[in-house]
């Protein structure tokens, strides 16, 4: 069964600290993995997309990694800011990109 | 970059009325669009896949007669919540895929908040 599991479910960190969010998947055949940021009351916005051959991809203070062998991905946020408070959703695309499997998201709260 | 627009962004209606939400892909054609519902502090829940020129595919547990989906053109899909009740109050989000990009980039609308009184 195709599944995407994210951890932790929620996380609270102090402003300026780093954090890492995890995404494990059992989707096969794998096409690509995406990380989205969703602010409260807004639609999700794409952070990164990685295909099978990509191990790491950065977008500003966000760095995503992918280990296709262990079927794990992480999203590392450096020097967190209050505006990073949001839900982060991992989405895995299967079957040459036709099917999308959503994780339940990690809610990040950055406090001052 | 590609943009997906939703309208209205917020709607309040009386119980028993029907509400239509539009989802438009502004600079690309989308043969497939997706509709989601999200309750407070919960994750996105896929409701249905909207296919241009054919019937939508609904997820298990989603009433197709309650949530009517029409995908009449390559840039527009509509979700109509029929005979809305307070329990239908939720945040509804659409997304569309730009298949001209090899990874099939998925873009989300800004969402439509429905409040049924």
Strand content of chain A: over 45%
Largest sheet of chain B: 7 strands, mixed
- Summarize model confidence as the mean pLDDT of chain B: 90
Structural class of chain A: mainly beta
DSSP E strands of chain A, number: 11
Task: Work out the radius of gyration of chain B.
Answer: 14 Å
Number of strands of chain B: 11
Q: What is the count of DSSP helices of chain B, taking H or I runs of 4+ residues?
A: 0
Order of helices and strands of chain A: EEEEEEEEEEE
Specify the biggest β-sheet of chain A. Answer: 6 strands, mixed
Portion in beta strands of chain B: over 45%
C-alpha-based Rg of chain A, rounded: 13 Å
Please state the oligomeric state of the protein chains shown: heterodimer
**Percent of residues in helices of chain A:** under 10%
Order of helices and strands of chain B: EEEEEEEEEEE
Structural class of chain B: mainly beta
Which protein chains make the most extensive interface, counting residues with beta carbons within 8 Å of the other chain's beta carbons?
A-B, 24 and 21 residues
List unreliable stretches of 5+ residues of chain B: none
Q: Can you describe this structure?
A:
The complex is a heterodimer of chains A (112) and B (117). Chain A has 112 residues and is mainly beta. Chain A is built from no helices and eleven strands. In chain A, the strands form two sheets. In chain A, strands 2, 4, 5, 9, 10 and 11 form a six-stranded mixed sheet that branches. In chain A, strands 1-3-8-7-6 form a five-stranded antiparallel sheet, with no helix packed on it. The mean pLDDT of chain A is 93. By secondary structure, chain B is mainly beta.
Key structural traits:
heterodimer, A: about 110 residues, mainly beta, six-stranded mixed sheet, five-stranded antiparallel sheet, B: about 120 residues, seven-stranded mixed sheet, four-stranded antiparallel sheet, about 55% strand
């Amino acid at each position: 069964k195709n599944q995407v599991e994210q951890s932790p479910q929620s996380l609270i960190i102090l402003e300026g600290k780093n954090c890492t969010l995890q995404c494990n998947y059992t989707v096969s055949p794998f096409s690509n993995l995406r990380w989205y940021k969703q602010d409260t009351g807004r639609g999700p916005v794409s952070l990164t997309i990685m295909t099978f051959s990509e191990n790491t991809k950065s977008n500003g203070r966000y760095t995503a990694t992918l280990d296709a062998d262990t079927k794990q991905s992480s999203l590392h946020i450096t020097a967190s800011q209050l505006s990073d408070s949001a839900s982060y959703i991992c989405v895995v695309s299967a079957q040459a990109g036709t099917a999308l499997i959503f994780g339940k998201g990690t809610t990040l709260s950055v406090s001052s | 970059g590609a943009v997906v627009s939703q309208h209205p962004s917020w709607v309040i209606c009386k119980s028993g009325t029907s509400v239509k939400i539009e989802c438009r892909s502004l600079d690309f054609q989308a043969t497939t669009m997706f509709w989601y519902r999200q309750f407070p502090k919960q994750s996105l829940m896929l409701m249905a896949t909207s296919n241009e020129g054919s019937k939508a595919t609904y997820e298990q547990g989603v009433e197709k007669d309650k949530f009517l989906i029409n995908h009449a053109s390559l840039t527009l899909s509509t979700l109509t919540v029929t005979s809305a009740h307070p329990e239908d109050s939720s945040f509804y989000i659409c997304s569309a895929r730009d298949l001209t990009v090899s990874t099939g980039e998925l873009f989300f609308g800004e969402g439509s908040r429905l409040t049924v009184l």
